[in-house]
Amino acid sequence: MSTVSVGRASVLDQYERDGYSIFRNVIDADLIAEASAHVDWLAKRHPDVRTEQLGHIYLRDDPFWIRLISDDRLLDIAEMFIGPNIALFASHYISKPPFTGQTVLWHQDSAFWPLEPMEVVTLWLAVDHSTPENGCVRVVPGSHTREIAAVRPNTEVDNVLGHEIACDVDEADAVDIVLRPGDVEVHHPNIIHGSNANVSPHRRCGLTLRYIPTSTRILGEEQPYPSALWLRGDLGVNSYQPVPVFDPARHFPFRDSAAWS
Q1: Confidence bin at 7 (pLDDT 50/70/90)
Q2: Contact predicate 48/177, CB 8 Å
Q3: pTM beyond 0.85, yes or no
């Protein structure tokens, strides 16, 4: 039984108190297997790109990615936090290869994002098992109530973002988010979080999904934003990317591709 059906009040209470919630068994094994194969396919198409960096610039014209991010099971979770009018702001596979997967230094997402107002929720979909050994997400519960801190560059450590929060973080306060494939972790844009390097023989892959209410404006000169997609409810204030037509010659083949032809 999917924990999408867990009591709304208890989930929202935890999110308000701690800044994150976990939903178990959200996405079925067949679709997760396709997502895993999709990551492998993307890695072969972009051999010069680290698999921690397979962001929306490589996904914007990808029917399978849009099929995945528009799955009603994910949108139903997002709706619990941001309401019925939903768009995608950004999305990113962070796939840490065995032994060499990069760390993600402590940060708050809201310090980086061009959104006004900062009404957004992140869903982190586990494609692989995510454990302390292979570099699972770590969060500092309750830190979402703090002000947004400055960020500073850090290239001394091999890391995904190249930046970190410009204040001390007590790692003793952090919680490991241990997930199975198909589980979803949800977190607040202000929560302090990061992840360690993958020192295990097992890949650790997850897909981040940044959903916004359609009343939140995406700022910046490039409009529509590369990964801005309308998904549910009213269109709101942004312009959006068109939904691509599936082309077997250039797109990842997947089970439901006929619906995108």
Answers
A1: low
A2: no
A3: yes
